[in-house]
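TL;DR need structure tokens for one chain.
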Amino acid sequence: MCWSATADLVAGAGIMAVGAASVTLAARRPRDLPLAALPLLLGAHQIIEAAVWHDDGGTGPATLAWAVIALPLLALWVPAAVLCAAPPSARRRLLVPLVAGVATAAVLAHTLATRTVTAEIRGHTVGYSLGLPQPQLVVVGYLLATIGSLLLSGDRGLVLFGVLVAVGAAVSFALWRQEYVSTWCAFAAVCSVVLTLWVRRRRPPSAPAR
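>> reply
TL;DR here they are.
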């Protein structure tokens, strides 16, 4: 995230608290749990980046953990979670972003296993370098898996989340091209709090007391 380790730590803790509330609300709809837990994952991700700041970047365990979540895990988690929560009418078209996510996650996981990811503190941002093969193709697959699955979900709340994340991707690329991944992940983490409203809207009504 931009600014500092403290900003990452405070934002991560707050987003994780929102995620815990989302998971609690989704407890009665198990198919919603993977998406409801996304703020928990993204909040933890920001806390891990606070450790990257503390280590002054480099190639340590915090950098690798950050990259594993940001790259292969989210590429697979988001389309799979959307598919779980989507209405039956949307599930066939959601297979496209899911397949893209599986393929993209496989490439990213292999790259992380065979190359070294490096973090560099650049003023008030963190830049990550991995040396991806065919980076343009990987980015297209990643965007299709994550933003594409949300926009194709057929659910207004998830489409809204997808639009917010897409706007964040465009802004991050325009303003912080070299630190694009870090700033976009931070933006997505903040936007993920809207999932709490989505979960609340979908929560089944409580049974009347007898």
